[in-house]
Write a structure and sequence with these properties.
The chain is mainly alpha-helical. It contains 3 helices and 2 strands. The chain has a domain of 44 residues. Helices cover 29% and strands 4% of the residues. It has a two-stranded antiparallel sheet with strand order 1-2. A hairpin with a 4-residue loop joins strand 1 and strand 2. The longest helix has 12 residues.
Length: 100
């Protein structure tokens, strides 16, 4: 990910400074890391969400489980309402697009 404050994105003569004094500081990490849980961590988190050992609002574990199993974005889950659930079809429809 590129930094918003990357010296290469600014004018070289800004504030009458001929060069950026921080230009030698690396902007991107050389070591790539991941934000993924391995399978064991995934199962451990999912099981903890089924029976949390600390007080948690009842809807949070279910929302996180839905994100984990169905892959929705957090914003999509936050916007869901009861009327988005079709009990007969057993299908979550989500908010309708504004263009319709």
């Amino acid at each position: 990910m590129k930094s918003d404050n990357d010296y290469r994105n600014t004018s070289p003569r800004r504030f009458r400074v001929p060069s950026n004094p921080a230009s030698e500081i690396p902007t991107d990490s050389k070591v790539q890391s991941t934000r993924w849980l391995n399978e064991e961590e995934f199962v451990q988190l999912y099981r903890w969400l089924e029976r949390p050992d600390t007080p948690v609002h009842p809807s949070y574990p279910r929302a996180v489980q839905l994100i984990m199993t169905a892959g929705q974005r957090v914003e999509e889950i936050v916007r869901l309402r009861v009327d988005h659930w079709g009990a007969r079809e057993r299908m979550m429809t989500g908010p309708r697009p504004r263009s319709f």
